Structure formats: C-alpha cells, structure tokens
Amino acid sequence: MKAAELRAMTNEQLHQLLADLRSEWRDLRFDAALGRLTNTMRIRQVRKDIARILTILTERERAALAEQGLLPPPKRTRRERKLARQRQRNWQEHELRRQRRIEQSQRRRRARVEGEVGQS
Question: For residues 102 and 22, what is the distance between their CA atoms, to the nearest angstrom?
C-alpha cells in the first residue's frame, strides 16, 4: 500500500488494517516454516505495510501532542552532538591558552617589579 492511501484512512481504519496485516504476517510466517509459501515476497510487503501504518499512527500521535504543547524537545542528531562536543573542546582549549597567557603576563609583571625594587 502507498503511504498516501494510508494517510487518507482514519485511525480506526488503520488499526483494523494493522490487525489484519499482523494476522496475515503470522499466517505467512507459519506457511513459510511449513514450506507451503509460494510468494515469499509477500512477507516483506506485509512487514513494510505494517511499518508504514505504525509510522503514520506515530506521526498523528506526535502531531496531537505538539498541538497540546506536550512534546519533549527533539533529540539532537549525532552530527549535532559531535559539533557540540567539538565546540566545547575548542572552548576549553581556548580558555586554557587564555589562562596561560594571563599567568605569563603576571610572572613578567612580578619580575619587572622585583627588578625595579632591586635597582632602587
């Protein structure tokens, strides 16, 4: 079945179709185990149809939750997490270099002050 056809159905129709497809899938697996299955491609088609229906039902549930404002914030992708780690690491390195420069300038000032005190 096409996703557009499934989206045109109501939730009740989708749940009924889902139950029918799961029953058919169980029968197909049983027939395959017994060696009676002639169209092995049908198992794959049924599995994919079940996945499509579940996806559409989940989309509808999430849309309803989003309208109510009850959805948690979306998870970041792996790439977003990786970039955030890199930014954090770069920031830490930047802060470390900054701290070292501050310490060096403080040492120079102390050395200058001690040198001036020694000359007086």
Answer: 68
- Residues 53 and 17 sit within 8 Å (Cβ to Cβ): yes
Q: What is the largest CA-CA distance in the chain?
A: 107
Which residue shows structure tokens 């017994």? 34
Q: For the whole model, what pTM was predicted?
A: 0.61
Check: CB of residue 29 under 8 Å from CB of residue 21: no
83-92 confidence digits (pLDDT tens): 999 999 999 9
* Phi-psi category of residue 35: left, alpha or beta, with phi > 0 → left and psi -120 to 50 → alpha: left
pLDDT of residue 106: 94
Q: Which amino acid is present at 26?
A: R
Mean pLDDT calculated for residue range 14-21: 98
How many residues does the structure list for the chain? 120
Measured distance CA(86)–CA(88) in Å, rounded:
5
